[in-house]
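User: Please predict the structure of the protein below. I'd like the answer in structure-token form so I can feed it into my own downstream comparison script.

Assistant: Understood. Taking the following sequence of 254 residues as input:
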Amino acid sequence: MAGTPILITRGLVREFRGFRAVDGVDLDVAEGDVHALVGPNGAGKTTLFNLLTGFLAPTAGRIELAGRDVTGLPPERIARLGVARSFQITTLFPALSARAHVELALQGRTSLGWRFWRSAKVLDRFRDRALALLADVGLADAAERPVASLAYGRKRALELAVALALEPALLLLDEPTAGMGAEDVDRTVELIATVRAGRTVVLVEHNMDVVGRLADRVTVLQAGRILAEGTYEQVRADEAVITAYLGSGTHAAH
């Protein structure tokens, strides 16, 4: 491990009616790393993600964030501790502008909370920061456009701007390039490479090319357990991984 772990799990288990979707996972995520979780469908990646962000409570085991036990805390408490998550399925409001989304996220960090009856005057306080965040993710030209009018890749970029508005120390990205064409994938990889500065990123990703370009460390899951862990090159060369996931030596798994 290169840096101090910001996120640790020990003996993490999640059962659904006797089925162990996550089965005794010990994970260490070093501060400042991009750490990828990969594995075939049904490996337990999304369940593990949901445990880390409080959307599911573990059946057994422990989760620590920056030395603090956060096991079983609800998502809003974990978010307040500096964790932001973007979802595999885009969760945006079609009629609201891109700028309004980011302004609401910025407002959510303050004592005002998430007040949807907010006055325009209140939100004006966040206008400049919102526009700067939109520029950071390549959406300067779309600030006033309703989300419904944005292409899929640009909606995902907006999601990232909303997550960054929360100023997270730990950013969790659930399949950030899912459903994207090659051009959007390249843009998203560049974006993540830029926004990782000063924070830790955990990402679930099917596209192994993306993992190879971004990840400092890779954890491979199979049937809820850790099959292998290391750098992308180490994991790629692991015989167990090749057999279970990559398939006869290929490194492009989707």
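That's the full token string. The beta strands are 5-16, 19-30, 34-38, 60-65, 68-69, 83-86, 170-174, 200-204, 217-222, 225-230.
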